[in-house]
Specification:
Layout: E1 14-20, E2 25-35, E3 40-48, H1 50-57, H2 63-70, H3 78-81, E4 86-94, E5 100-104, H4 106-117, H5 120-128, H6 135-147, H7 152-164
Antiparallel strand pairs: 1-2, 1-5, 2-3, 3-4
C-alpha cells in the first residue's frame, strides 16, 4: 500500500513507547519535540517495571503480567503502575523502527506522569503486599494523597484502581 491514512507521529504529539531491554520492556511517555522519518526527539519520563521484573525472576508472575512485562501498551500499563518502578527524565532520540510507539492524549500523558511522580506505584506495591509491615502507614499516606487530589478525573482513576484492588 501507499501509506495514505497511516497516522505518523508529528512534533507536538504525546507518545507512549516501549523498548525491549532484555527480560522486560522500558516504557517512555513524553512529548515529541522533533520528528523526522528515522528519529524522534522525546521529552518526558522513562519507566522501568522493577517490581514485575523481580517477580518474574522469582517465578511469581501470572501469564498476563508476563505479557505486560514483555510488551506494555497504554491499555495494560496499569499492571506496571501498581508495582514498584524506577523512573527518571527522558530527553533523547528514539528510532521509530526500534520501539513500539503510539500516540496518546495529553491527558493520558499527564495521568501517567502524575501517577509515577506522586509515588503511587510504591504505595500500591506496599498496600498489596501481604507481609509488608509498612502497610498501615502506606494506607494513611495513600488516603492523605487521595483526599488532596484536585483533578476530578485523576481522582476517579485512582479511586477505580483502588476499589478494584480492594484498597478503598
Amino acid at each position: 500500500m501507499l501509506g495514505f491514512g497511516k497516522k505518523q507521529v508529528r512534533e507536538g504529539d504525546y507518545i507512549f513507547a516501549s523498548m525491549d531491554e532484555g527480560g522486560y520492556s522500558k516504557v517512555v511517555v513524553g512529548y515529541v519535540n522533533f520528528a523526522e522519518m528515522d528519529k524522534l526527539r522525546i521529552t518526558g519520563i522513562y519507566i522501568k517495571p522493577i517490581g514485575l521484573f523481580e517477580r518474574a525472576r522469582s517465578g511469581r508472575i501470572t501469564p498476563r503480567q508476563q505479557e505486560v512485562l514483555r510488551s506494555p501498551t497504554p491499555d495494560n500499563m496499569i499492571h506496571i503502575l501498581i508495582d514498584r518502578v524506577e523512573y527518571g527524565i527522558f530527553d533523547e532520540y528514539l528510532k521509530p523502527n526500534s520501539a513500539f510507539i503510539t500516540r496518546i492524549s495529553a491527558k493520558r500523558y499527564s495521568e501517567i506522569e502524575t501517577w509515577v511522580r506522586d509515588g503511587y506505584p510504591e504505595l500500591f506495591s506496599i498496600l498489596l503486599s501481604p507481609v509488608d509491615p509498612r502497610r498501615e502507614e502506606a494506607r494513611q499516606i495513600f488516603m492523605e494523597k487521595y483526599n488532596s487530589i484536585y483533578d476530578s478525573e485523576f481522582k476517579q482513576t485512582v479511586s477505580a484502581v483502588a476499589r478494584q484492588l480492594r484498597i478503598l
